[in-house]
Structures are given as C-alpha cells and as structure tokens.
Amino acid sequence: xxxxxxxxxxxxxxxxxxxxxxxxxxxxxxxxxxxxxxxxxxxxxxxxxxxxxxxxxxxxxxxxxxxxxxxxxxxxxxxxxxxxxxxxxxxxxxxxxxxxxxxxxxxxxxxxxxxxxxxxxxxxxxxxxxxxxxxxxxxxxxxxxxxxxxxxxxxxxxxxxxxxxxxxxxxxxx
Length: 174
Fold this sequence. Notes:
By secondary structure, the protein is mostly helical. About 70% of the residues lie in helices and about 5% in strands. The protein has helices spanning about 1-5, 10-20, 25-30, 45-70, 80-90, 100-115, 130-160, 165, and strands spanning about 40, 75, 120, 170. Helix 5 runs antiparallel to helix 6 (about 100-115) and helix 6 (about 100-115) packs across helix 7 (about 130-160). The two termini are about 25 Å apart.
C-alpha cells in the first residue's frame, strides 16, 4: 500500500486501470473531486521510517497480546501463538473491529491448542475445552478493548496533527 501511494507513476497506472472497470458515475465523481490536482509525495527515507515503525509497533502488539494470555493465566507456545494472531488479524478485516470472526477463530484455535497440550495454565496443567472457549472469548474481548484504545489515541493525535495537511499539497516538499 505504501509503495503504491509513494509512486506517482504507479498511482496513475492503477487509477487508469480502475477507471476502466468502475462505473462511469463513480469515475466522473473521482475526476471532479477536490483532491484531483493534489500531489502525494513521500521521500524514500520517510517510507523506510514508516515501514520500520510498523514492524516495531507490530512487535509491541505481539507482546501486549501475549501479556493478555499471561494475565488470564494461560501459557501458550510461541509458534502457535504467533500463527493464531496472524490468522486472527487476517479474518478480523471481514467484520467491524473483528467482532464475531475473531471470537470464532480464537475459540476454534484455542480449543484445539488446549486439546493438543500446546496451551496450559501457568502451572503447566492442561486446560479443558470449555475453559479454552471461555478464555478465548475473554482474551478476544480484551483484544477488542486494546484495539479501541489504539483507535481512540490515534484519533486524538490526528486532531492535533491532521494527516491531510501533512500529505496532501499542491507542491512537492524540498
């Protein structure tokens, strides 16, 4: 996504292709929009910084979610944990804030992990399937709350530093 936004040529090519497949009414609206003559330019150093920052925040997210498991008394192997979080992230885009889809996937995966012994309580005792379901719903709810806090903080920061003023302009930065 960042590569498409950063490359003016790639954006023009993509928009040129999209205009051919979207309805005429929508393409006319896009041509008349107030952003038509604006330039989005990001230097490569900023793109690299954003990509690195994304990986750092992804690492923080993995740690925060793992701490949720520990706080609820669950010990889970790191491999299945990372796989579960990756799958949950992919299916969460299907619904609003991942509600429902994240819960269902976490229940399915955590009951399977409990059945195979890859998820235990902190003392090493196995977790039953019913307890794994309850834990999955609880951790999923905590995950939702963390996500909402992130959105709220991002909204507050965006009020102070509007993205439109920083990225959309009629001239290229020096």
